[in-house]
Amino acid sequence: MPVPVVLSGRSVRLEPLAMRHAEGIAWAGALDRAAYAYTSVPHGLDASCDYIARALAEQAAGRALPFALVDPHTGRVIGSTRFLELDYWRGPVIWPPVTGVPSGDPLTSVPDAAEIGNTWIAGEARGTGVNTEAKYLMLRHAFESWGLRRISMRADARNTRSRVAIERLGATCEGVRRAHSRGLDGVVRDTAFYSILDEEWPAVRGIIELRLSGLHRPTSGFPGQSLEPGGAGELLPA
Predict the structure, then answer these.
(1) Residue 194 near residue 172, CB atoms below 8 Å
(2) Of 100, 141, 151, 216, which is the most exposed, with the fewest CB atoms less than 10 Å away?
(3) What residues have CB less than 8 Å from 115, skipping those under 6 apart?
(4) For residue 220, how far is the Cα from the chain centroid?
(5) What is the C-alpha separation between 235 and 155, in angstroms, rounded?
(6) pLDDT digits (tens, 9 = 90+) for 40-59
(7) What pTM value is reported for the model?
(8) How far are the Cα atoms of 3, 18, 75, 94 from residue 89, in angstroms, in the given order?
């Protein structure tokens, strides 16, 4: 299981998700509930505690690495995201293949492929560049610290805003899997899949750094207005 880390940027800090974040998660999740049509976001303190407990159980099982998104200027929780679908390709080739199980010491192993998902942002932080920087920090850690071969992302095919934002990162659409799963609204949904490969990372990094260089986030609180071109640059994969 990859060791939990803190990833720090100018506008957001990614902290390993812990029960101490419960009140902050509850506060962030209560803002603008209508925006979470395609993303599972806890509502209330009890639901937030359960959300964190389930995420930590996934982490303990080696299936995910969850984070709280924190405003570095105020210390306030503004959302959550995680690495999941961790896959390991090193070690001897066995058949049938066993996914999600590292070769050697699991406490020091790093994956060869992973997914970034379960991402949601508090209403006050949307459109400020927070989520773009959060994805940048995660991608940089994945490719430059872990040495991953592939990062995947996915979105409900109906979630146009999320799909546009993922594509603006420079991710490649691998296609849409029809009738893939049941959505939060009970409708059987199609799912759009995206990926970034290690050889593509230098170009993708340049794209994201160029976007981040044009952001000038205030140092205290959120102004309630978009600082990104188009104002819809949030990633909310479902």
Answers:
(1) yes
(2) 216
(3) 83, 84, 85, 151, 152, 153, 154
(4) 24
(5) 9
(6) 899 999 999 999 999 999 99
(7) 0.85
(8) 18, 29, 38, 10
